[in-house]
Amino acid sequence: MRIRENNRFGVKRFRELQAEATSWRRHLHRNPELGYRLENTSKFVREKLASFGINRIETGIAETGIVAMIKGEGGDGPTIGLRADMDALPIVEASGKAWSSEVGGYMHGCGHDGHTAMLLGAAKYLSRIRRFKGSVALIFQPAEEILPSGAQKMVQEGFLDIFRISQVFGMHNTPGIEIGQFGICHGPILSSLDDFDLIVKGKGGHAAKPHEGVDPIVIAAQIILGFQILVSRQTNPIEALVISVTKINAGTAYNVIPDQVHLAGTVRTFSPGLRDFAEREILVSSKGIARGLGGDVELNYRRDTPVTFNHPTETDLAIRAARALVGSSSVNTKMPPRISSEDFAYMLEARPGAIIYIGNGPTAALHNPAYDFDDEVLPYGIGYWVNLVETVLEP
């Protein structure tokens, strides 16, 4: 497929940054860090931003997060935020690349090294050619992969108010979409994520005399089946609700019925109403089943990440910026929402904005030991950020 390019908005003007951005990306890939412990990553980002002549660089936000400000030459205007995540994953890398992780047990398995490099590339370009009004806040976020998340903590610390950010935008790479293509949709684009621990209580005893006790394993089996009835018979089939039991722990011996069973799992949906339903009905259903069989339950339900919701105006702006870069045919504006979560949702709850997906080609899946961010993506990501700024903050 031929990608349309033009002098002002096309990707051609950003290819000169690819070699340098590739070196940044591969350095970050060799040196992954986890969660909030991003001291070296944060230092690297801060030094690069300073080398671009950016004067306002605020560090220590949510421990190792950074916000850098670039003011345009087009006069007064609003401030928009561009966000990249920086943390890696606790995975042993199996990509076989020359720039593979040099830190045992850690790797950039989700492309955050690429996200950081693309925003650094945009920072260098925008600091040199300030063809916009208002200001841009470059947001380098820690701890996207853990809970409590970095985005949540940054929002709680009030960074959006401190930097007077009126709109926020995110971008994430995705394997399976061709390089040079983008995907986005209006409204919910990623599901919420909740998790739960459920203790099923019974009365233990000898496996040869089950009638003298209350078998929590049998109760737990009925509860698991009951969860599927909640999904298939008590919710609208047009709406998505996924309840997955992912852990079952019980018993220590072949001939002993245990006192209790520990179930754990996740709940995902695009609907805040179904999120409320799931939290309420998981307890009601499991308690009813358990008590009907002589046992009881104890539930600990945690709301981890809200629905990632693309706001209408900002989604249209993101589409315009991507189309100007690669042409309309290379931007899928009706990408199906995904049953996965993203803590950028916290920023989108606090401010209007949108997240877009950028193609990473036919690579291994995210969070796979063989995954690697494709450096051919870098000029497209840099170009998208710059086009977005020049679209939203047009002088």
Automatic annotation (TrEMBL):
InterPro entries: Amidohydrolase, Bact_exopeptidase_dim_dom, Peptidase_M20, Peptidase_M20_dimer. Pfam families: M20_dimer (PF07687), Peptidase_M20 (PF01546). Keywords: Hydrolase. CDD domains: M20_Acy1-like. One of its GO terms (molecular function) is hydrolase activity. Gene3D superfamilies: 3.30.70.360, Zn peptidases. Residues 195-273 form the Peptidase M20 dimerisation domain. Its EC number is 3.5.1.-. PANTHER family: METALLOPEPTIDASE, PUTATIVE (AFU_ORTHOLOGUE AFUA_6G09600)-RELATED (PTHR11014:SF63), PEPTIDASE M20 FAMILY MEMBER (PTHR11014). NCBIfam families: amidohydrolases. This is N-acetylcysteine deacetylase. It comes from Mesorhizobium ventifaucium.
